[in-house]
């Protein structure tokens, strides 16, 4: 199973990542990727960039080293009603938007609360991807999560970093297996991302690929197999 894109990465402006945009693009080119998503942490994450950074992304070229760039944000879900830290006008101007739960921005709640946070965020038409929904520190109803993603046309992420033994997220593999099982049941597509915060990890999908192979996950449900597959789900390409 080959992947031509990595849609979830960060540069040094996110505050806890370590390379420039050009260094990340160069790494993507070296890995043979066609598309690179750079999705900086949105303003409520400590140390990241502020609103004007996202407003000004219109000036940045969208191709570097032969790699198409999709520039967007990883917004923070702030409460159990699914509110995030960029408004619709701001998100509509971005190429893509990932929404995630992060410890600095929202405390872990009950299964019902965490699930509701995701499901309410999915109702926003400018949110394209739910980032690392496998973090066991935020337990969720996996079936309801997949049903909601299917209903709202949102993509669930299989996050390679979550599966790295060095990652602080809890019980990721167990949770990913449950999510993937329900995705197969409902025909719900996923995207595999590195969540790279350093250039050496751009396009690093080894943990995710192992899991997909072990589960015989259908290739046609993995959207980053081709640019054409992902287009209907991404703000920049939605008609």
TL;DR of this structure?
With 239 residues, the chain is an alpha/beta fold. It has helices at residues 21-30, 51-55, 88-92, 111-122, 142-152, 172-186, 206-214, 227-230; strands at 5-6, 35-41, 63-64, 67-76, 97-100, 129-130, 155-159, 190-193.
Molecular shape: globular
Name of the level-1 CATH class: Alpha Beta
| Helicity level | 25-40%
CATH architecture: Alpha-Beta Barrel
How many E-type strands?
Answer: 8
According to CATH, the homologous superfamily is Metal-dependent hydrolases
Number of domains: 1
Write up what this structure looks like:
By secondary structure, the protein is an alpha/beta fold. It has a single domain (5-233), classed as Alpha-Beta Barrel (TIM Barrel), CATH 3.20.20. It has eight helices and eight strands. It has helices spanning 21-30, 51-55, 88-92, 111-122, 142-152, 172-186, 206-214, 227-230, and strands spanning 5-6, 35-41, 63-64, 67-76, 97-100, 129-130, 155-159, 190-193. Strands 1, 2, 3, 4, 5, 6, 7 and 8 form an eight-stranded mixed β-sheet that branches. A hairpin with a 2-residue loop joins β3 (63-64) and β4. The longest helix has 15 residues, at 172-186. The model has no long low-confidence stretch (mean pLDDT 97).
Set out the fold topology.
Elements: E1 5-6, H1 21-30, E2 35-41, H2 51-55, E3 63-64, E4 67-76, H3 88-92, E5 97-100, H4 111-122, E6 129-130, H5 142-152, E7 155-159, H6 172-186, E8 190-193, H7 206-214, H8 227-230
Parallel strand pairs: 1-2, 2-4, 4-5, 5-6, 6-7, 7-8
Antiparallel strand pairs: 3-4
Helix pairs in contact: 4-5, 5-6
């Amino acid at each position: 199973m080959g992947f031509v894109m990595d849609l979830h990465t960060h540069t040094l402006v996110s505050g806890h990542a370590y390379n420039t945009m050009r260094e990340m693009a160069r790494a993507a080119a070296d890995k043979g990727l066609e598309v690179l998503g750079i999705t900086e942490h949105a303003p409520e994450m400590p140390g990241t960039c502020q609103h004007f950074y996202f407003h000004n992304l219109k000036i940045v070229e969208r191709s570097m080293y032969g790699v198409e760039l999709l520039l967007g944000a990883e917004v923070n879900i702030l409460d159990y009603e699914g509110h995030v830290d960029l408004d619709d006008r701001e998100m509509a101007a971005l190429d893509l938007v990932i929404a995630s739960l992060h410890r600095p921005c929202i405390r872990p709640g009950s299964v019902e609360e965490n699930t509701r946070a995701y499901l309410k965020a999915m109702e926003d038409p400018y949110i394209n991807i739910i980032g690392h929904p496998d973090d066991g520190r935020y337990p969720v109803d996996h079936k309801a999560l997949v049903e909601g993603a299917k209903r709202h046309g949102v993509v669930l992420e299989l996050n390679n970093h979550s599966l790295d033994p060095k990652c602080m997220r809890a019980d990721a593999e167990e949770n990913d297996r449950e999510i993937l099982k329900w995705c197969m049941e409902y025909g719900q597509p996923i995207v595999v991302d590195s969540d790279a915060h350093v250039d050496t990890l751009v396009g690093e999908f080894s943990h995710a690929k192992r899991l997909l192979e072990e589960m015989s996950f259908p290739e046609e449900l993995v959207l980053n197999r081709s640019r054409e597959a992902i287009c209907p789900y991404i703000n920049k390409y939605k008609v």
